[in-house]
Amino acid sequence: MTDIIRKDGRTPDQLRAVTIERGWSDQAEGSALISFGKTKVLCTASFTNGVPRWKSGSGKGWVTAEYAMLPRSTNDRMDRESVKGRIGGRTHEISRLIGRSLRAVVDMKALGENTIVIDCDVLQADGGTRTAAITGAYVALADAIEWAREKKFIGQRSQPLLDTVSAVSVGIIDGDPMLDLAYVEDVRAETDMNVVVTGRGLFVEVQGTAEGAPFDRSELNSLLDLALLGTTELAVLQNAVLAAGAAGE
Amino acid sequence: MTDIIRKDGRTPDQLRAVTIERGWSDQAEGSALISFGKTKVLCTASFTNGVPRWKSGSGKGWVTAEYAMLPRSTNDRMDRESVKGRIGGRTHEISRLIGRSLRAVVDMKALGENTIVIDCDVLQADGGTRTAAITGAYVALADAIEWAREKKFIGQRSQPLLDTVSAVSVGIIDGDPMLDLAYVEDVRAETDMNVVVTGRGLFVEVQGTAEGAPFDRSELNSLLDLALLGTTELAVLQNAVLAAGAAGE
Amino acid sequence: MTDIIRKDGRTPDQLRAVTIERGWSDQAEGSALISFGKTKVLCTASFTNGVPRWKSGSGKGWVTAEYAMLPRSTNDRMDRESVKGRIGGRTHEISRLIGRSLRAVVDMKALGENTIVIDCDVLQADGGTRTAAITGAYVALADAIEWAREKKFIGQRSQPLLDTVSAVSVGIIDGDPMLDLAYVEDVRAETDMNVVVTGRGLFVEVQGTAEGAPFDRSELNSLLDLALLGTTELAVLQNAVLAAGAAGE
Amino acid sequence: MTDIIRKDGRTPDQLRAVTIERGWSDQAEGSALISFGKTKVLCTASFTNGVPRWKSGSGKGWVTAEYAMLPRSTNDRMDRESVKGRIGGRTHEISRLIGRSLRAVVDMKALGENTIVIDCDVLQADGGTRTAAITGAYVALADAIEWAREKKFIGQRSQPLLDTVSAVSVGIIDGDPMLDLAYVEDVRAETDMNVVVTGRGLFVEVQGTAEGAPFDRSELNSLLDLALLGTTELAVLQNAVLAAGAAGE
Amino acid sequence: MTDIIRKDGRTPDQLRAVTIERGWSDQAEGSALISFGKTKVLCTASFTNGVPRWKSGSGKGWVTAEYAMLPRSTNDRMDRESVKGRIGGRTHEISRLIGRSLRAVVDMKALGENTIVIDCDVLQADGGTRTAAITGAYVALADAIEWAREKKFIGQRSQPLLDTVSAVSVGIIDGDPMLDLAYVEDVRAETDMNVVVTGRGLFVEVQGTAEGAPFDRSELNSLLDLALLGTTELAVLQNAVLAAGAAGE
Amino acid sequence: MTDIIRKDGRTPDQLRAVTIERGWSDQAEGSALISFGKTKVLCTASFTNGVPRWKSGSGKGWVTAEYAMLPRSTNDRMDRESVKGRIGGRTHEISRLIGRSLRAVVDMKALGENTIVIDCDVLQADGGTRTAAITGAYVALADAIEWAREKKFIGQRSQPLLDTVSAVSVGIIDGDPMLDLAYVEDVRAETDMNVVVTGRGLFVEVQGTAEGAPFDRSELNSLLDLALLGTTELAVLQNAVLAAGAAGE
């Protein structure tokens, strides 16, 4: 497998260059501008006291997410969903995925009756926007929680974050499993899988789709191996970025 | 594992009673009213000549699907999406899943420039509505294709169906993997997975979500084993129903 | 007039085969699957405590209805109103008609501050969907009220139902008045009338429309005679179905 | 019956003061500002060559109507439907009624492949807005057809108008049938009926609704008698107004 | 400049015939039907106790406005915004302009926690609809405030109106500045400016747009001179109309 | 005037630090990330062959713009317009302003039947987003035109750009005119004006609004003086950035 060299010079098990610009926003309680190669996603975390009505009085917090693409983040300009007056299925699907992924590593009791809204806006798209969004959103979330702790909105001993979480795409191209697909690879993939994994290596989401021919169990296993390789590397990066000092410093 | 008996008397690896009433509709080219226990989904397949503009001239056909729930299919009445004026994320997500699942077993070249729209309307919901929908939709699709062959809209030798396809939910409840979750089980599941499988046993979709704690690789494997057990049984039933004579006879 | 035999073998003053499957739904407080020939409408009644804000404190209840058609209930598939993002005029008109018709036989004081929402979903359409909906909705409504009495949400001596109510279509085809038009008759009718009548034979709604030539007073009278014949028969059936034992038994 | 004097001094069988200001608009091909007492409706008829796609090539024309109320036409300000983003059921219902009523007196063949859109905008509402709208719309329609004849868009010998059409409301208040209900009467009526009648005295629409107790056949007959009295008077007025010289002169 | 005679016989610095029919509506607390030549706008002011939630408890009132055009107010019929399901940018822009213009002359403290909603509906359009709307809306507003004073909803000594306000359009056509453009002039104007001015001659809004070539400072000054001429005349008319006795008398 | 020092250390006639990152996007034909202090707007220009239907065959091109804010570009998170399902009045207003401003410096004949869509997405907001958007959009537009010239979509000798265009806000705070208001200044301004000016110093748009007390002619003149100062400086910067070599180099 390692003999294959991809169009952009990577080996099959290699991530694109990943950078996380923590504290990008002057406005949000937490933020990160993340790049997976040419894919750039601005992630902000907005902290507010209180929870939606249906959670009120539960003593628990809430974390939710919204994903969107700028109209010219892609090669051909897309119409704005605000102009169309409705949000498309893909947008809904990814927003829900990001929300679920982050909630999986948050102890809602420890968060208390507070809400964190994550916004992931794709500034430039080159494949893997949802996985970059999850990975960057975690950093924004962590900083928003730290901000709330400093402001005493959550207790000094509360540990709302149970673990880190990151995500990566994997796929089979011409029969070969590949890690972190760029757009040109994504459109050619027979099978496409997005995997969300905690820092401890446990699965939060596994979403595999046969775009071409259905896949068998051994292909599924190869893809999962590759994905775990990628998320392990991303977790290391997340921790390094967060250890580098408070956001904005 | 087999010692566990579920609330409704099933063993962990047992499907609910599944029935398929083929040719339920007098109007549609193909149809099936499918039940997974108390879950009832009416699936219709509407065949029309021609394809959407973006496929026109490709020589290939198109299969798409829409899923919806009647407002009182559930225990508490839900507002209609037509009244709210927008389709929710969950509805979008499931419609897209059904469409992808069916397209995975259709040879679009053999279908020719024809379109089949699948409608899956949940008349009663008790968990597993999306998996029942996929399983029933396959039967409606097969009959719509047979209808088109008889009407000579597709050639006598064309074989647009490459395989059967069915789906089932699996989940982990109190640490135990279970097949085909009813609603009361679904809300308690720590991990919830929907698996779409072809008649040959290949995966079309694997969508696993940690609702509670993240899951490890061995749990994932147990769930996949269980799912394949279920879809094998469903494929046998689909074939039996379709072999029983033309719809409406 | 009785010498005429219609396409489906009926005499001009004959209803189609009418069946009412009471208690079809496991979820709703009252329900009925009604058929007028090939027209099939699933009617559910959802009971909730409390009333909309504008009725609050009045001591009176509220009954409202929503009507919709499944996309492939008709011969050609219709787009979903949820997908179009707006409800059409015909749907609105029929929903309002059903609601008014049922409210005409409900004593809102006796109902108390409770709300019953009726959903009428057309599973298959062959003319007369609104009249079948009203006729079936009455049965669902009666069972929901009975359910509420058993649950003590309304008093044991309260009699919220003042009378039964049913509806039928009539029309003039080639100059001849006909009862309960099937779709092929409906499109040919010069005049089309929907009549809603209580068990005592009083009018709740009379909606006559000249689709072709305007009609005179004697034609109007013949149509009303025919309609009363039909609703009398439907009232007998409603009472028989409701007398047959509690729903679900 | 004639002994009763209503709040505004009318006898039960008396219309309110009706005025028709023909040619009110400088822009529309036909127009009329009609008053039924304090109810004022601006009716315009817009003539365009061509028909909607579904009528194209049929050699027949099309007439359609839209009804709306200004937000402060009523005693309490209503929200604009444009602001709410959706048209209410009542608006839809009345727009459809106006369109059907006018089409009943138009020979679509004689109109040729031309479209007339009628707009009825209620400037002030005091009951009977839909009946005033139909009555005024007929005048606007007649002038638009005359305009098209002068412009040679329809042949000199074509007679697209088969008859006049007008409408009036009737109702039962405290047991007494009354003609042309003002708003304060309308809210008290037990039964409310809108009747659309041609110049020859034939029915186009009969829409009777029991707002309180259901009504019997003899009440229905009294209401129809009264309605025919009113529409006869309105037809005389329409003819007088149209005979008074071309619009705008 | 005064040698130029416009198509409709006006000199460059001449307003069209302006009429204000005060108290046009029987329903609204204040109203005016204003004409600028063929442009006719119905302005109503609806007074209600209380303010929107975000102003509640501030002791201050609120004034807002909505502008709309009837579909056939223009030469070609426009689709209704209620039918399109969304309000266009131009409508939004003008509604906001009218609201701001009126708020500029209202002392919100003196108004107290009361809301006045201004509706400006264009019945006929021939250029200058927004400026006619502002000018007429002021009269409706003044009467609604007077009504509220009589009803004691605002104190006898409160003077919520700080000044009058009116508006006019000016533009450069073939190099010549012109006052109060009719539609045929408006479409030819190289520069188009709407100016809102108080009775004391102070600016509330200045909105100048180069439709063709950009304009220089001296052109801007000529346009402002002309606009002040027009608004001075309009203020005189407003005062005369309001001095003529209470609305409705 | 020059003695006054603002909160952020600027003199009244001083712009904030303005930076333009040309060619920010790898996808768009032209792009610029512009900052006015903390305000950051991503401007992209999308070039496509052909024009909207209503311009087709005219031989002229079209330039249009859309403006939007990221939900957490502001201090408090705003709801997304795509989620609300409708675009607000302010968004519409600014999109239209940007489009008009750019069209004022484009020779549509020279552009030929091509369309350029400008997207201005506010990544961070601190006042002056619309003026930053116009200023940055010009740079993106210029590069898209250059790109089209290289691709031969427009002739080598065609000069679609007639001039540069930039914009700045000015306002009166505590009686003092100030240039380029930051958000904290903007909310305190009595009068607020946005001025769009070409490189030659001609006005494209002048939009002045009295937020508090109306303003007089001499205040208007001071604001225009200040604005011209600012736009002159911005034009110099635009030219410098565009002279620095092709985008992406």
From TrEMBL, chains A, B, C, D, E, F:
Transmembrane parts of this sequence: none
E.C. number(s) listed in UniProt: 2.7.7.56
Catalysed reaction, written as an equation: tRNA(n+1) + phosphate = tRNA(n) + a ribonucleoside 5'-diphosphate
Binding site for phosphate: R90, G128, T129, R130
Domain of life: Bacteria
GO molecular function: 3'-5'-RNA exonuclease activity; tRNA binding; tRNA nucleotidyltransferase activity
UniProt family annotation: Belongs to the RNase PH family.
Described purpose of this protein according to its UniProt entry: Phosphorolytic 3'-5' exoribonuclease that plays an important role in tRNA 3'-end maturation. Removes nucleotide residues following the 3'-CCA terminus of tRNAs; can also add nucleotides to the ends of RNA molecules by using nucleoside diphosphates as substrates, but this may not be physiologically important. Probably plays a role in initiation of 16S rRNA degradation (leading to ribosome degradation) during starvation.
Protein name in UniProt: Ribonuclease PH
Organism: Herbiconiux ginsengi
Gene symbol of the encoding locus: rph
